[in-house]
Amino acid sequence: MKINILKFLGSLALFLAFVTSSVTANAGTKDDVIKKGSLDCGVSQGVPGFSNADASGKWTGIDVDMCRAVAAAVFGDANKVKYQPLSAKDRFEVLKSGQIDMLARNTTWTLSRDAGLALEFVGTNFYDGQGFIVRKAAKIDSAKKLNNVKVCVETGTTTELNLRDYFKANNLKYEAVSFTKADEAVAAYDAGRCDVYTTDKSGLAAQRTKMKNPADHTVLPETISKEPLGPVVRGDDQNWKDIAAWSLYVMIEAEELGVSSKNIDSMKSTDNPNIKRLLGLEGDTGKSLGLTPEWSYNIIKQVGNYGEVYEANVGAKTPIGLARDGSPNQLWTKGGILYAPPVR
Amino acid sequence: MFRIDEIKNSLKKNLQLGNLVPQFLLLFVLFFIVYYFTSNAQTNMAARNISSGFGFLQTNSGFDVQFSLIDYDGSYSFGRAYLVGLLNTLLVSSFGIVFATILGFLVGVARLSNNFLLSKLSQLYVEILRNLPLILQIFFWYFVVLRNLPSTENSFIFLDFLIVNVQGAYFPKFIFTNFNAIFYGLVCALLTIFFAQYYSKKLIYERGKSLPIFKISILCLILFTTIFSLIGNTDLQLQQAELIQNFGIFNYVGGVKLVPEFLALLFALSLYTSTFIAENVRAGILSVGKGQKEASKSLGFNNSQSLKLIIIPQALRVIIPPTTNQYLNLLKNSSLAAGIGYPDLASVFAGTALSQTGKAIEIIFIVMLTYLSISLIISAFLNWYNHKIAFIEK
Fold first, then answer.
1. Which CATH superfamily does the domain covering B78-172+240-389 fall into?
2. A131-225 and A2-127+228-334 share a CATH fold
3. Which residues of B fall below an 8 Å CB-CB distance to A?
4. Phi, psi at residue A199, to the nearest 5°?
5. Residue A178 and residue B343: Cβ atoms within 8 Å?
6. For chain B, percent helix, then strand, then coil, each to nearest 5?
7. Looking at beta carbons, which residues of chain B come within 8 Å of A168?
8. Interface contact flag, A179 B64, Cβ < 8 Å
9. Cα–chain center distance at B56
């Protein structure tokens, strides 16, 4: 009998979970968020530059600013966000069950996740890819020069497979020293067991800050795989997806038009119709999204344009130090691939 | 291991009717449990569109392994990756068993020595090493000792022979030309030793005199191989690992390389297991009656003769069965390799290959079957050996 009771309780819990999650899913997420008074945003458990809490509990990062942008669009106040740190394993389930309203957790956009999980990737706020980190003393400035090296890597990952493909394709000799955990691989590299450590570039930059002497290491310019990272929402609320997507696009568009948090107020007197539309002075972009006309102004004023967000969190002057020029995370007009559809 | 007569007896007892019904029920329940879990796995795999089968063993693995006894890289199959892991497990286990046995014997005998310091030091060795968890000892060797060795360009170099740095230890590769001559020399030496032993036995039985057979053997080996290699023009070259510089990165290439993961695992496994073997040896020697030693002394044996000819042969019967367990433990403990990234069977196949293919059921099944087979082979061999040296009771 005991087993039957357990089974009954289990199915009851499942049923309840199903019922409650479908309830949240059916109502408009935007209205729910407004009613709650804050945006519940899923972030990482601490990836410097992407989403990381400091000693006082203040969250910063490029993903955190994505949450803040959506809050600014909805509430006119970028600070109305509650952050929920999530592990890679739990993130999609928590989003699907309605415990968070959006997920901004350096998540790679792939077909199986987009189509298979009933989720919607709203865009890419950081184009990542696998890279290499070496000691500066190695005097190597290109991955093409890595020959006869030992590479520390996390086992059982796509990283491990990309690594082999790259060295094979370039006809370079190497030895892969595999570890089960990322931390072990980093520690081994740091102790000199390997000459090179490889993972996603954002991960490299973040791990470097944890090494004994971060300044002794340098990330090589080559990127050997595609890892587009972006915010994710549930797939059943088109309006909410649009709000998240256009929050990202106006930041990109603002940079392209030269509008920043600092000059936005002086820009209000411009004659440029594109800027006028962007700032909500012309047209009715807010109405289409079900937001106030100032939604885009609030995002740019309170969070900044994409360039500001990038430089403040992962740019060359931060500890992460990812140079933007020459990377895909540059505007399309400057050789990158950031491209926002027209805001009109 | 079961013995036929034991099985017969136990069957006879068990085949009485009163016993039959509960046994049948037990069998039925066992069968049902196995059936339930198999069909459950099948339904759930079908529901999640997980394909099953062993076809993946032939597909390209796509990942590399840092330390392999056979040619392997990502273009080889998953089946080959299995073989790489298996050989690495066998390598570390067989070296571990040899070292643990030698160390264990020495420490076990030393513990019974009349020398106070020697016996107390042996006791200390046993008590410290067997009471620390093995995984900690592996971590100690790996993270504390081997991780803090100098970098490649500042390697320790001993006598131009052994090179040690944080990336591993390098020995020269022995390259013989005309190796055949030495081989023939070895064959001749062994034949001579065989006949010398035969003659020495005959001498003992007929005249009670013994030949210094050990010295003769050494002499034969040196003499024959030297003469033959001189005649056959044998040449030996040591191919030492070379330091290659690529910009600021230094690496040794060539030679025989032992990675630190292997060394840490080998040290920890050998030392840990040797303590248990030492205790077995001590127990075995103590189990031989005091009278045996006294008798051998009164017959004029010296200490080492009495140990070698009287005590140890009798002690072996007590030592071997529990030592078999220690060998099996060592083999199974070698799967702790995953903790430091030594590519053994468990970490290459049940770790990397499993997460790359997702074939959890097939892979775990293969790995379990493999460990089981190796364990059974070791225990069958030692049972056979134990049986062979047992007292022939009349």
1. MetI-like (1.10.3720.10)
2. yes
3. 62-66, 73-75, 147-148, 151-152, 166-167, 244, 246-249, 251, 253, 259-260, 338, 341, 343, 347, 351-352, 354-356
4. -165, -170
5. yes
6. 70, 10, 20
7. 74-75
8. no
9. 30
Closest A-chain CA to B249:
A138
Q: Which residues contact A156 (CB under 8 A, 6 or more apart)?
A: A180, B351, B352, B354, B355, B356
Comparing alpha-carbon positions, the chain A residue that sits nearest to B353 is A156
**Nearest by CB: B247 against A145, A160, A174:** A145
In whole angstroms, what is the distance from residue B103 CA to residue B281 CA? Answer: 11
| Cβ-defined contact of B166 to A191 (cutoff 8 Å) | yes
Asked if A198 and A167 count as a contact pair (C-beta separation under 8 A), the reply is no
- Which of B364, B315, B367, B320 lies closest to B345, judged by CA? B367
Contact at 8 Å (CB) between A225 and A162?
A: yes
According to the model, what pLDDT value does residue A19 have? 42
CATH class of A131-225: alpha beta
A145 with B260: Cβ contact below 8 A: no
A112 touches chain B (CB under 8 A): no
Q: Does A176 touch chain B (CB under 8 A)?
A: yes
CATH superfamily of A2-127+228-334: Periplasmic binding protein-like II (3.40.190.10)
Per-residue pLDDT of chain A (344 residues; tens, 9 = 90+): 344 554 555 554 444 444 444 444 445 899 999 999 999 999 987 778 889 888 899 999 999 999 999 999 999 999 999 999 987 667 887 888 889 999 998 888 888 778 767 789 999 999 998 999 999 888 888 888 888 889 998 887 778 888 988 998 999 888 889 887 777 888 899 988 899 999 888 888 888 888 888 888 988 888 888 889 999 999 889 999 999 999 999 999 999 999 999 999 999 888 899 999 999 888 888 999 999 999 999 999 999 999 999 999 998 888 888 888 888 899 999 999 999 999 88
Domain residue spans in chain B? Answer: 4-47, 78-172+240-389, 177-236
Q: Do A155 and B66 touch (CB under 8 A)?
A: no
Beta-strand pair A232-234/A119-121: antiparallel
Nearest to A315 by CA among A45, A60, A59: A60
Contacts of A134 in chain B (CB under 8 A): 249
Q: Where are the domains of chain A?
A: 2-127+228-334, 131-225
- Whether B246 and A145 lie within 8 Å, measured CB to CB: yes
